Amino acid sequence: MAHGEDTKRLVRKSYVFDGLDLSAAAALQGVSDATARRWKSHAKEVGDDWDKARGAHLIAGGGLEEVARQTLALTVLQVNATLDAITNEADMPAAAKAKALASLADSYNKLLSTSKRLMPETSQLATAMDVIQRLVQFVRDQYPQHTGALAEVLQPFGEEVARAYG
Questions:
Q1: Same domain as 130, residue 90
Q2: I need a labelling partner for 154 at 20 to 30 A (CA). Which of 7, 89, 118, 161 fits?
Q3: Is residue 52 within 8 Å of 15, Cβ to Cβ?
Q4: Taking each helix axis from N to C terminus, what angle separates 5-16 and 50-60, rounded to the nearest 10 degrees?
């Protein structure tokens, strides 16, 4: 069955802009996988690379930071679960635990380093929040008589920080 240019554009839109995989984009428009792959391949031959367009849309739309943020959040959960498993594993030799922990720490540090590059706004917000927490602790320890005044100022300032970095 022949499909018109409008159908081809809708498959491309679903793939590039809506983030569907090619099979789902094709199915949504009643097109076979083979036809969608052929359209995508032909488009690339004539200079319309659907994958590059999809990547550019992801980056331009802020999607890359969202993906990185979700990945980091899931990784933190996995790191915690792995730490618990290593800690609670009675039959695991100490040397094996140390090696597993070192490997886990290395992977986690690499992910954090990459995240800072992929999520500059999130990284800035985290830094700002750390500075605020350090200020609160400093005032509590060194100038406890000013804790009430600081608390009064921090609420509206926290909203300002969220607007600036969040």
A1: no
A2: 118
A3: no
A4: 50
The model's pLDDT over 11-24, given as tens digits with 9 standing for 90+, comes to: 998 888 788 889 99
- The answer to whether residues 133 and 151 belong to one domain is yes
Question: Residues 9, 32: one domain?
Answer: yes
Alpha-carbon dihedral of residues 49, 55, 56, 58, nearest 10 degrees?
A: 140
Per-residue pLDDT at 8 exceeds 90: yes
Q: How many domains would you assign to the chain?
A: 3
Q: Which domain holds residue 112?
A: 63-118
Taking residue 10's Cβ as centre, other Cβ atoms within 10 Å add up to 18
Q: Are residues 80 and 114 in the same domain?
A: yes
Q: Domain check: are 73 and 111 in the same one?
A: yes
Contacts of 65 (CB under 8 A, 6+ apart): 118, 119, 121, 122
The more confident residue out of 71 and 27 is: 27
Identify whether the C-beta of residue 162 lies closer than 8 Å to the C-beta of residue 121. no
Task: Take residue 89 and report the two structure tokens written for it.
Answer: 């594993």
Domain boundary residue, one of 80, 102, 118? 118
CA distances 10 to 15, 24, 25, Å, are: 9, 12, 8
Burial of 60 from C-beta contacts in 10 A (0-12 / 13-18 / 19+):
exposed
Rounded CA separation 59/74 (Å): 20
Q: In this structure, is the dihedral angle defined by the CA atoms of residues 72, 163, 56 and 123, taken in order, positive or negative?
A: negative
